[in-house]
């Protein structure tokens, strides 16, 4: 298993895109990674856009970012809620400053925009937030997955296999 011993944090909140949360978590666990979910409250059940639940292991305020090797931000409508919390933005900034992999898909780019880490970076996302990404200083590229250093971005659920293949490659280099 390629990622045995690696710890990955994933954010969660209501209205996450079900596949964009669960596919990466399950795929990374298949590779031996330990993946934790952090939400606004510890032990809370969050419901995805299509009704699939996810229970947070931790609250954002309880997270020590240095305990983790990478971060995942799922898409859906959840990123618009997630980005409103200073604890979240501090985690994202820490991960970026310390060159730890950050995976974001679909609308997850909103969280990175609010953390102000996209200036001069190459990214992709759902076309619906293309202008937001560009206005934050990023170069938006319409591809299934874009890797720019520690930042791995993807557009939508059909791109998940490409997204996780590249995310795992970046993780293997740690």
Shape: globular
**Please, how many domains?**
1
Enumerate the spans where pLDDT stays under 50 for 5 or more consecutive residues. Answer: none
Overall CATH architecture: 3-Layer(aba) Sandwich
Helix content: 25-40%
Describe this structure in words.
Its EC number is 3.2.-.-. It comes from Planococcus koreensis. This protein is an alpha/beta fold. The chain has a single domain, classed as 3-Layer(aba) Sandwich (Rossmann fold), CATH 3.40.50. The protein is built from 6 helices and 11 strands. The two termini are 15 Å apart.
Q: How does the SSE layout of this entry go?
A:
Blueprint: E1 7-11, H1 18-30, E2 34-39, E3 45-47, E4 53-55, E5 58-59, E6 70-73, H2 78-82, H3 86-97, E7 102-105, H4 109-114, E8 122-123, H5 130-135, E9 139-140, E10 145-148, E11 151-154, H6 160-172
Parallel strand pairs: 1-2, 1-6, 2-5, 6-7, 7-11, 8-9
Antiparallel strand pairs: 3-4, 10-11
Domain DJ-1/PfpI: 6-169
InterPro entries: C56_PfpI-like, Class_I_gatase-like, DJ-1/PfpI
Family: Belongs to the peptidase C56 family.
């Amino acid at each position: 298993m390629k990622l045995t011993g690696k710890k990955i944090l994933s954010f969660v909140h209501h209205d996450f895109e079900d596949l964009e949360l669960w596919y990466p978590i399950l795929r990374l666990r298949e590779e031996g990674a330990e993946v934790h979910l952090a939400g606004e409250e510890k032990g809370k059940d969050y419901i995805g856009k299509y009704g699939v639940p996810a229970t947070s292991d931790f609250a954002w305020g309880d997270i020590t970012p240095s305990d983790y090797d990478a971060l995942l931000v799922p898409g859906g409508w959840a990123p618009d809620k997630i980005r409103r919390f200073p604890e979240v933005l501090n985690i994202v900034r820490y991960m970026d400053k310390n060159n730890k992999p950050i995976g974001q898909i679909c609308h997850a780019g909103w969280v990175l925009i609010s953390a102000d880490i996209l200036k001069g970076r190459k990214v992709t996302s759902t076309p619906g937030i293309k202008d937001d990404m560009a206005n934050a200083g990023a170069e938006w590229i319409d591809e299934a997955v874009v890797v720019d250093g520690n930042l791995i971005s993807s557009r939508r659920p059909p791109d998940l296999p490409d997204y996780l293949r590249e995310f795992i490659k970046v993780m293997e280099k740690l």
